[in-house]
Amino acid sequence: MAIFGRVGDSRVNPCRHLGLFRVPKSMSGYDRVNTIRFVGCGRFPSVGDVELDRCPIQTRMHRTAFLRSINNILTHQTARRRLTTMATPYNIHIAPENVGLCRQSEEAARKASELLQEDLEKHHVFFNEDGFHNHIPHHILALFGTGAPVSSLQAGYNHNTSYQRPALPMHDTVISDLQSWDHASAYLGKEKHYPDFLRFFQREIASHGSESVLTTYLFSGTPAADDMLARLYAGFLHPLIQLMYGLEWSQPAIIAEALAQTAVHSATPSLKSFLLEAESLSRTNKPPSPLSITALLSTIRSSPSLSSAAHFSDGNKIRDGVLARARAEMLDVASRVSIPASSLAESTAQMFHDALYTASLAALAFFPAKHPKFDFFLIHHVNAAPVFATINKLDWIPEETKVRMLEWKVRMDLLQYAARGAPELKGGVLEGYVPKAGKGEEVVSRLYDFEDDGHAVKLARAALVCRELCEWYEDREWMVIKGEELWGRVFGLIVDSVEAPGPNWVRGCGFEEAWKVSACLFR
């Protein structure tokens, strides 16, 4: 069925751009609609905005069914946030109403779209040859999502463009070769092929839609998809964070970036086999009553082999530390993670809360002797957490896949905690902390013009989302951060951490050596 939409004077193919069109079986005998014209419609056209030219749909019933099908594509559905005709695999379009936590202006939405588009076209995924990530998309959307003004969006972009590497050239032969995914192994894990994977996934999404492409390449459970899924959790969860912003803001171009970023990350045999083996052990030896995340963290802390497995001198504390020196013990702990499908929503909130609470207590591990500092690696596990709330809302992702992805996230949280030296998590220390920045959500605005690469405002935004998600569970035993007072301390702690003297973050909060890197960390 050839379907074209005319918006103003621009001729577009909504099937191609949206990737959401499905022809009802009842219409299979009608093979062509020459033109669909959207008449004076806004962002989300409806049946009343559609006119059909030279339409061969001869019965009122089929015409109504067809219009209803088109309406299902184009009508905004809050839970799923369907893609708009302006957001394509090649074009980023952020709408002011798609902001998440705060209201935003048309001007801010235009500016965010403009900056993200420029980044898409001009910059490489890594800003150096050591694989350090370009964080511009995260920074801009975290600012936009917390209500930052246009000036802050532009300032944040300007601060982080000077050191970005330009986009690398594409290789047309590689893009063609990727049409058979069996050939992908020759290119996976190689950053020079990022532009090839990006164009490949842009074309795939344009042809099949984001849902189908994500299902095929990440969620289908095939060996090839599992290989990509392991890469999604690599790189300190950066590909997962990129996917989060693409899904949450319904941007197929950012989803394509996330898939391309996933493809060029290395699925180290140790990490991939750890995730798959822990999953297999969990299914085989399903614990009768799974331990809470807090209990599993305590198990790691109290285990001599696990708490000392990573050394401060290790280049990669997961690969060279925990998985090299205490793999069996770590597998035993990770295999105890088992989430019933019936408790998916609450388990998601608990994962999010526990990641934030762990990071907050770890930031105060040496307080008051030293200034509070969040651990650079633990914050990524907080910053990635909102994606699971978004995934839970997507009815095209099977429930078993949602559970699987959440279990993998919890296992990665536990592994990262061990890799950071299993810092002591002192109960009550957060309750006694008095932030210099003040208490309350309003202190987050102090991060709008903070000159970093976006990690600070991302962490604050994640904490805001966490609070919103966890409000439903304040009567649960696992909920520790609750009430205006304690949440206010968390927001103040985040701001204090980056405004205090010394580096913005500590790297390896469980190692005393990490706190000695800069004398400024001492109070």
From TrEMBL:
> Keyword set for this entry?
Oxidoreductase
User: Do you know which Pfam families this protein is assigned to?
Assistant: Questin_oxidase
- GO function terms (MF aspect): oxidoreductase activity
Designated name of the protein = HypA-like protein
Species whose genome carries this gene = Cercophora newfieldiana
